[in-house]
Write a structure and sequence with these properties.
There is one protein chain. This protein has about 325 residues and is an alpha+beta fold. It has a single domain, classed as HIT-like (HIT family, subunit A). It is built from six helices and 15 strands. The strands form three sheets. Strands 3-4-7-9-8-13-14-12-11-10 form a ten-stranded antiparallel sheet, with helices on both faces. Strands 1-2-15 form a three-stranded mixed sheet. A hairpin with a 3-residue loop joins β10 and β11. It is globular, with a radius of gyration of 20 Å. About 35% of the residues are buried.
């Protein structure tokens, strides 16, 4: 029988549709685009991107030239621009402001054929450090309130370029969905005097039916109220409100479990398209007892349609306990 499950943070409901239960082989793999043609993100094409704002180089090469292992550049077609003033104003019942913010591209590797799931562990750790350095820098801008780090992998997940990359967007407002998550976490804390994410980590490690993998610092799970088949969360085992405020040793541990989780998803689901998002505290209040940063990975295996848009419910045809079992067994 189908089961309704309630998310303890947002209060949203999902339908775990056991009668439609689908195994990994039931999801058709994404049709791959042929590799070839010009790529502005490949090494040697540095003049085809805006000037870099961060780069990791081992040989002392000059900025905006070959010899890098990772680059961060402003998006050539940004959603928001860093120059200018907010100029908030009302127009009757409507509010508006200038599109001030930042939009950057993290080019994760100089090699076109490499992906985050095939990069050596040091390469994945470099990506996580780049996120941290850019978040710390953007935080200094008093106009900004939230930094969103996300990755679209595969055309079905919204990636317009095949070369492995992720994006950073800094916003002058706290997005509604982020506010809802923070408020849900705060309400739980006010009621129970505990962080809801810490409670999730403790319960999942105790029950283990939805645990996918773990190391000394992190655990990856299929969340109890998964919206999507094979949705996966990576959470620090200890309370950490903000991604960029972690101790240095945790970035290597985070890289280890992120790499492991992406390889499992690739093996079980035949290299699926996916989105991942780093959920972290907004500005300026970052030292929150009630909020806990984490990564959410959402394979793009099903479509959101009328029922979901009309109700806010999601229908997930793969119970998270089954998804976790498939992923645990992957090597």
């Amino acid at each position: 029988m189908p089961e309704l499950r309630k998310d303890p943070i947002y209060g949203r409901w999902v339908i775990i549709s056991t009668e439609r239960s689908r195994r990994p082989s039931d999801f058709a793999p994404e049709e791959r685009r042929p590799i070839g043609g010009f790529c502005p993100l490949c090494e040697g094409n540095e003049d085809r991107t805006p000037p870099e704002v961060l780069a990791f180089r081992d040989n002392g090469a000059s900025p905006n030239s070959p010899g890098w292992s990772l680059r961060v550049v402003p998006n050539k077609f940004p959603a928001l621009r860093i120059e200018g003033e907010l100029d908030r104003e009302g127009e009757g019942i409507y509010d508006k402001m200038n599109g001030i913010g930042a939009h950057e591209v993290v080019i994760e590797t100089p090699q076109h054929s490499e992906t985050l799931s095939t990069l050596p562990l040091k390469g994945v750790e470099n990506v996580l450090w780049a996120y941290r350095e850019r978040m710390v820098d953007l935080r200094r801008d008093q106009r900004l309130r939230h930094v969103l780090v996300f990755k679209n992998y595969g055309s079905a997940a919204g990636a317009s370029l095949e070369h492995s990359h992720s994006q950073i967007i800094a916003l002058p407002i706290v997005p509604t969905r982020v506010r809802e998550e923070i408020e849900g976490s705060k309400n739980y804390f006010l009621y129970k005097d505990r962080c809801v994410y810490c409670d999730i980590v403790r319960q999942e490690l105790r029950q283990r039916s939805r645990v996918i993998a773990e190391n000394s610092g992190f655990v990856s799970i299929a969340p109890f109220a998964s919206r999507f088949p094979f949705e996966t969360w990576i959470l620090p085992k200890i309370h950490q409100p903000s991604y960029e405020q972690m101790e240095a040793t945790f970035y290597g541990l985070a890289a280890e479990i992120l790499s492991d989780t992406l390889r499992r998803l690739k093996q079980v689901l035949d290299d699926p398209p996916y989105n991942y998002i780093i959920h972290t505290s907004s500005y300026p209040e970052q030292d929150r007892d009630y909020y806990h940063w984490h990564i959410e990975i959402m394979p793009k295996l099903t479509k959101v349609a009328g029922f979901e848009w009309g109700t806010g419910f999601y229908i997930n045809p793969t119970p998270p306990e089954e998804a976790a079992e498939y992923l645990r067994e992957a090597r």
